[in-house]
């Protein structure tokens, strides 16, 4: 299968075909070594993960190069790798205490992880690390859109003798993922709602449990009296990081009517400082749209909004093609309503649709008027006022006066509500329990 470079549009990479027999053999090999892995004990598993961390650090530059080619951006790639390195330390640090409490629980033997293209390494490791520490063996299939880093990450695994037989990253398309779903004891999936539904249906045939994070339409709420500089900075970051291709991206912005125009003007001014990453991959903040098909979604949402009366104040009327890559400039849209796709469906681009509100009751109703409930943020003059609104928002993780604090801080529980996913807490100590089953032994 040929793979497209998101910056150039050139199909300059190829992944090998992988058949059912090969996947079955890999799964069998992983299963054969799971018992020894779990019996090695948590202290040993922590030591092995720490050794892997060092192998990743040694190969960091190679990973940066591969992931930058996969995604077309550099500074987010460096941050992504640093986040993974830091995450290994944080998960290892919390594991021992957790396992004292869950001593009678046993791991799922083989975990299949199917991960997305927007943060290819981080969103695969978010499940891989706790699964390994839990005592499971793991087979990971990253997205076929961003497969270049697989060769490098497998190289780091080969540097760690304790990992070689219990972890493997494999390239492949949806057909490989389907085979994995049929062979695993537990499936982790991050990606689109449509694919998540297909995986859930396939897994149900064997009653295989599935953990999914599959959709979001996160709101940012700015109350009267909020610090507008703080709010504008966080909203811009939360909407444009990775060109908006972020599960926790702000895709709806609700601003009190008394400060609406002032905040919009401030956001327009701040967007002027953001440049596209085109000729020099090390310069600029807004990288390309990684997946070519996502361009159609962004363009459709913008066109639908304009047709229904929305006004684009700055940014793009549609994605632009530059040197073969597709780019969407940070775009501010006003006069929006909940009848528009831009306010209902996941856009996955650097778009800020801004809507005014009059009362707290109104904004709570607007924020909750969605089938997705992954995250949210509230900006207010006081923490107490922000928490009052946050407690009324139906979302798994809510930041106060900032964006995506759960992912940044890596503590606190994070759960997907409604159609944003199923399957327990993904961040926080309880994350480990997702990979375990409780066993009770009775004696007479």
What this model shows, in words?
The protein has 444 residues and is of the alpha/beta class. The chain folds into two domains: 231 residues, Aldehyde Dehydrogenase, Chain A, domain 1; 201 residues, Aldehyde Dehydrogenase, Chain A, domain 2, CATH 3.40.309. 42% of the residues lie in helices and 19% in strands. The protein is built from 16 helices and 21 strands. A seven-stranded mixed sheet has the order 11-14-15-10-9-17-18. Strands 6-5-4-7-8-20 form a six-stranded mixed sheet, sandwiched between helices. α3 runs antiparallel to α5 and α5 runs parallel beside α6. It is globular, with a radius of gyration of 22 Å.
Q: Summary?
A:
The chain has 444 residues and is of the alpha/beta class. It has 16 helices and 21 strands.
Largest sheet: 7 strands, mixed
CATH topology description of the largest domain: Aldehyde Dehydrogenase, Chain A, domain 1
| Mean model confidence by pLDDT | 95
Give me the CATH superfamily of the largest domain.
Answer: Aldehyde Dehydrogenase, Chain A, domain 1
Which helices and strands, and how do they pair?
Blueprint: E1 2-4, E2 11-14, H1 20-32, H2 34-39, H3 42-58, H4 60-71, H5 75-101, E3 105-107, E4 110-114, H6 122-134, E5 137-141, H7 149-158, E6 167-169, H8 174-183, E7 186-190, H9 193-204, E8 210-213, E9 218-222, H10 228-240, E10 250-256, H11 260-271, H12 292-307, E11 311-314, E12 320-322, E13 325-327, E14 331-334, H13 341-344, E15 351-357, H14 360-368, E16 372-373, E17 375-379, H15 383-390, E18 397-400, H16 405-409, E19 417-418, E20 421-422, E21 436-438
């Amino acid at each position: 299968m040929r793979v497209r470079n998101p910056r150039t549009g050139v199909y300059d990479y190829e992944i090998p075909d992988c058949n059912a027999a090969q996947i079955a053999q890999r799964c069998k090999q992983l299963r054969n070594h799971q018992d020894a892995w779990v019996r090695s004990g948590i202290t040993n598993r922590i030591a092995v993960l720490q050794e892997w961390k060092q192998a990743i650090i040694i190969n960091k530059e190679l990973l940066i190069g591969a992931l930058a080619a996969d995604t077309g951006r550099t500074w987010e790639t460096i941050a992504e790798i640093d986040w993974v390195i830091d995450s290994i330390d944080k998960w290892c640090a919390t594991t021992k205490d957790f396992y004292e409490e869950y001593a009678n629980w046993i791991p799922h033997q083989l975990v299949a992880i199917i991960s997305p293209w927007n943060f290819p390494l981080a969103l695969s490791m978010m499940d891989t690390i706790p699964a390994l520490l839990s005592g499971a063996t793991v087979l990971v299939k990253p997205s076929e859109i961003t497969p270049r880093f697989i060769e490098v990450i497998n190289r780091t695994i080969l540097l760690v003798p304790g990992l070689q037989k219990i972890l493997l990253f494999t390239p492949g398309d949806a057909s490989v993922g389907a085979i994995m779903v049929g062979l695993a004891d537990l499936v982790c999936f991050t990606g689109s709602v449509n694919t998540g539904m297909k995986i859930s249906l396939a897994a149900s045939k064997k009653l295989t449990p599935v953990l999914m994070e599959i959709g979001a339409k996160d709101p940012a709420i700015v109350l009267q009296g909020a610090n507008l500089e703080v709010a504008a900075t966080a909203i811009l970051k939360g909407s444009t990081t990775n060109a908006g291709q972020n599960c926790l991206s702000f895709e709806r912005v609700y601003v009190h009517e008394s400060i609406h125009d002032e905040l919009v003007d401030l956001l327009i001014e701040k967007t002027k400082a953001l440049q596209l990453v085109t000729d020099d991959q090390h310069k600029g903040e807004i990288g390309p749209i990684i997946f070519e098909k996502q361009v159609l979604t962004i363009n459709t949402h913008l066109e639908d909004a304009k047709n229904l009366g929305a006004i684009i104040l700055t940014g793009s009327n549609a994605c632009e093609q530059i040197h073969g890559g597709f780019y969407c400039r940070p775009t501010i849209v006003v006069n929006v309503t909940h009848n528009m796709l831009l306010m209902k469906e996941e856009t996955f681009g650097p778009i800020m649709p801004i809507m005014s509100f009059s009362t707290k009751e109104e904004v709570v109703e607007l924020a909750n008027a969605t089938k997705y409930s992954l995250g949210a943020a509230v900006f207010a003059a006081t923490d107490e006022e922000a928490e009052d609104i946050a407690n009324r928002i139906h979302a798994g993780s809510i930041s106060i006066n900032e964006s995506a604090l759960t992912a940044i801080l890596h503590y606190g529980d994070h759960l997907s509500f409604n159609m944003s996913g199923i399957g327990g807490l993904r961040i926080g100590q309880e994350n480990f329990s997702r990979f375990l089953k409780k066993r009770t032994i009775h004696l007479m």
